[in-house]
Structures are given as C-alpha cells and as structure tokens.
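Practice problem 4.
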C-alpha cells in the first residue's frame, strides 16, 4: 500500500501564526482559525436553511471551511493588507494558492481524490459555499479583533472597523442572525458564561 504524506503535511498549519503584522496579546494559528471558521460556516448554513428557506448541505460546507486555508502550509499566511494591496498581488497570490491546493491534492491516494476535490479545491466550491465560507472567515476575523481590543490592544481597532464594514457588505440575513444571536457572548469570561446559565 502506498503511503501518503497528506495529513502529516497539512497538520503543520498548527505552526502558522496569523496576524503576523500586528502585535497580538494572544496568538492564533491557522489550525485554530480553520476550526472556528468551520463551526461558523456550519452555523450559517443551518441558519440559512432553517430561517431563510435555504437548501445547502451545511455538513459539506463545514468540511470545505475546515480545509479553506490548508494551502497556507505551502504559501504561508499572507496578511490581508498585503494580499489585497493591489489587483496584481491578489491575482498572483490566488494563483499560488491554487497551485498549492493542487500540490496537496496530489498527495492523496487515488481512491480518495474524488471525495476531496469538492472540499479541498476552491475552484470546485459553489458560489454559495464560497460566499458563506468567506462570511464565516470574516466573522472569525472580527471575533479576533474584538478579543484583542477587549484585552486592551489598540493595534486591532482599525482592523475591527474595516472588518465590521466588510461584514455589512455581505448583506446576508444569516450573518446578521449570527451576529445578533451569538456574537456578544464572545466577550464574556468563562465565569460569566457559566453564571448566565443559572439566571
């Protein structure tokens, strides 16, 4: 049986730190971020289906979101201000990301490739999946900004403003629902969360 390095390779995303151009009170790695984006994307899919007459496979959405940044094990994490600095840089980086995805995909055993190509390769995502994963990614970034600001780190104030404005541009009712129902709790301590259950 041929051995594959696929999972060992992508597990290295735990060593990739996000927000590299900012001082952080608490570091965040790509693996942590990917888990959070997957859980939020899953919720957005369910909210769309339950509240807004959607028909998306929330489980497939969560899996695609879980893999949305694995190419960074090859490319590294490119800070957003640089990644989106110009159209040329954005296009070049996207091309590199797609090449990295293909390289990782090629490590999979042949009998598994058809199952992974729908969630690992961005080009195979539907427009709806892509939009909801991007929205979840943006919510995750906003949560990080607010946690840093709450810890007294003013380094994230401007980023929070920009990301908040970006969230509005999605104009997705499931995003509004998530923010209204779930977001405020992120600022609570564990003791506050536990005590709120007893009220």
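Answer key:
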């Amino acid at each position: 049986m041929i051995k594959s390095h696929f999972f060992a390779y992508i597990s290295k995303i735990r060593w990739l730190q996000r927000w590299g151009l900012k001082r952080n009170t608490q570091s965040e790695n790509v693996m942590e971020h990917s888990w959070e984006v997957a859980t939020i994307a899953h919720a957005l899919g369910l909210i769309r289906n339950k509240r807004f007459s959607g028909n998306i496979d929330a489980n497939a959405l969560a899996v695609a979101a879980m893999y949305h940044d694995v190419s960074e094990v090859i490319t590294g994490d490119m800070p957003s201000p640089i990644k989106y600095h110009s159209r040329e840089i954005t296009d070049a980086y996207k091309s590199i990301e797609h090449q990295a995805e293909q390289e990782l995909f090629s490590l999979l055993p042949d009998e598994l490739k058809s199952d992974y190509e729908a969630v690992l390769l961005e080009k195979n995502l539907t427009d709806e999946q892509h939009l909801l994963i991007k929205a979840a990614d943006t919510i995750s970034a906003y949560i990080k900004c607010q946690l840093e600001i709450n810890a007294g780190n003013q380094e994230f104030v401007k980023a929070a403003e920009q990301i908040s404005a970006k969230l509005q541009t999605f104009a997705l009712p499931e995003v509004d629902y998530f923010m209204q129902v779930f977001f405020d709790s992120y600022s609570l301590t564990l003791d506050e969360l536990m005590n709120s259950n007893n009220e």
